[in-house]
Design brief:
binds guanosine-5'-diphosphate-beta-L-fucopyranose, 42% helix, alpha/beta, 300 residues, 13% strand, five-stranded parallel β-sheet, two-stranded parallel sheet
């Protein structure tokens, strides 16, 4: 077996073991012919497709067109190249933001296409939804064993800490660090009221590796812990772990995005009944530790 992990240097890809983890310079996923050549030359038999143009709420709202175009081309190319090269199994990543904004909770895979995603990230969400459509269509027409997973908000080592494009947890870690350094307020975007499910990247890697070897169904596989956490609680926990004692303030000039997106992980519980998720406290300690070790390269 020869496993290619796309996006192998990113948050998720860094946590997953693979035989080949090319950088963007080594393999341009916007170029279908280049992917086909790469897969053939290395006799790739399995793929975990993590690569995407990703970002938090601000990046998604500022670059709706870019997020749609880049992710649509990348995703379409990866699955088409895998089909042309007879790759035996592909696991692709969607996200809980793909669900309709006015859904029935908890979010279940059958609801994915039942309405418009939230306005803050509809372009990325629609591009990601097409992984489900293309995987099912290639299974129906060609018999491809292509499956999709739906993680909730992922965080951990190797995250993106750029404040303009990052997700909430790395953003708050970096902002808390700066607030300590500069003795300023710790500013949180929005009201702090939204709820999110957070999954530690090590858990994503373990579950995805299991899915690669064991899950062969067309229904997207949701991976999320049971508990939702309020953004204000995340901010307070990060402040506590990092030893910030100043003011935590909320800037409602920034959007809250989706109020909540609780997802139904009953299939995971049924198939992996003994799986233990990393607690948010433990996960944040590991993410903060990684940030502090790499602080110099991140902040310069
Ligand atoms: O993680 P985040 O950017 O993305 O924001 P989403 C989550 C919540 O954290 C929002 C709040 O309510 C933000 O307003 N927040 C507070 C902050 N302070 C900050 C901050 O400094 N930076 C950021 N980024 N947020 C994403 C989708 O939605 O979920 C992606 O846009 C992807 O496409 C990801 O699906 C999993 O959770 O709102």
């Amino acid at each position: 077996m020869s496993l290619l992990v796309t996006g192998g240097r990113g948050l998720v890809g860094s946590a997953i073991n693979g035989d080949f983890k090319p950088t963007r310079n080594e393999l341009d996923l916007m170029d279908l012919d280049a992917i086909v050549a790469y897969l053939k030359e290395r006799h790739i038999t399995e793929m975990i497709h993590c690569a995407a143009k990703v970002g938090g709420i601000k990046a998604n709202m500022d670059q709706l067109g870019e997020f749609f175009y880049a992710n649509t081309i990348i995703n379409t190319n990866v699955l088409e190249a895998a089909r042309q090269c007879g790759v035996e199994k592909v696991v692709s990543f969607m996200s809980t933001c793909v669900f309709p904004d006015n859904a029935t909770y908890p979010l279940t895979p059958d609801q994915i296409h039942n309405g418009e995603p939230h306005s803050s990230n509809y372009a990325y969400a629609y591009a990601k939804r097409m992984l489900d459509v293309q995987s099912r269509a290639y299974r129906d027409q060609y018999g491809c064993n292509f499956v999709t997973v739906i993680p909730c908000n992922i965080y951990g080592p190797h995250d993106n800490f750029d404040l303009e494009s990052s997700h909430v947890i790395p953003a708050l870690i970096r902002k808390c660090d700066t607030a300590i350094e500069d003795r300023t307020d710790f500013v949180i975007w929005g009201t702090g009221n939204p709820w999110r499910e957070f999954i530690y990247v090590g858990d994503v890697a373990e579950i995805t590796t299991w899915v690669l070897k064991n899950y062969n169904e067309p229904t997207p596989f949701i991976m999320s812990p049971d508990d939702e956490v309020q953004i204000s609680t995340i901010a307070q926990t990060i402040a506590s772990v990092m030893g910030f004692e100043g003011n935590i303030v909320y800037d409602d000039q920034y959007p809250d995005g989706q109020l909540k997106k609780p997802s139904d992980s009953s299939t995971l519980k049924q198939l992996l009944p003994d799986f233990q998720f990393t607690s948010i406290e433990n996960g944040l300690e590991q993410a903060i530790g990684w940030y502090q070790t790499h602080r110099k390269e991140i902040t310069t």
